[in-house]
Each structure stands twice: as structure tokens, then as C-alpha cells.
Design goal:
Multidrug-efflux Transporter Regulator, Chain: A, Domain 2, mainly alpha, 3 strands, single chain
């Protein structure tokens, strides 16, 4: 399942703009782009981010997870 930015924000308890701030800060993976106006996050990635936040992870730990998720995408693996 793919999630919109509003859905990601609702799952993580943040505003839509904060979701994008977290992408810029590297604490959320960037969405998958499917056109100039269409982007979504794999729900499995957001599940992992949510579990990591709930476990009390630091921003550095979140950045490490984001890096892992992005590497899995580029390696052609299903990180979701």
C-alpha cells in the first residue's frame, strides 16, 4: 500500500509540512515519485519508521534506518 503525505503525517502524529521537514532532515525517507505531481511512501517503510520512533530512537538512529531503506530501494529489494 502506498501512502500520501497527509496519511504519513497522521500515522506519525505530525502535520503535512512537518512530514516534508523530516524528509529534508533525513529522518523520513523521500517518497517514491511517479510523475511531476505524484509521490507516495510504501506503508512498510512507514511501519518501520513508526516502530523505531515508538522505541525511542534518536534522530541519528532514524537517519541510519532511512539510509537502509533507501539502499534497499536502490538495490531492487522490497523494503516495504
Amino acid at each position: 500500500m502506498l501512502l500520501k503525505d497527509v496519511e504519513v503525517g497522521a500515522r506519525l502524529g505530525m502535520a503535512r509540512s512537518t512530514t516534508w521537514d523530516c524528509v529534508r532532515a533525513g529522518t523520513l525517507p523521500p517518497p517514491i515519485r511517479r510523475g511531476s505531481k505524484w509521490s507516495r511512501w510504501p506503508s512498510g517503510e512507514i511501519d518501520r519508521i513508526e516502530a523505531t520512533i515508538t522505541a525511542g530512537a534518536s534522530d541519528d538512529e532514524l537517519r541510519a534506518l532511512v539510509k537502509e531503506l533507501i539502499e534497499a530501494r536502490t538495490a531492487g529489494k522490497d523494503a516495504a
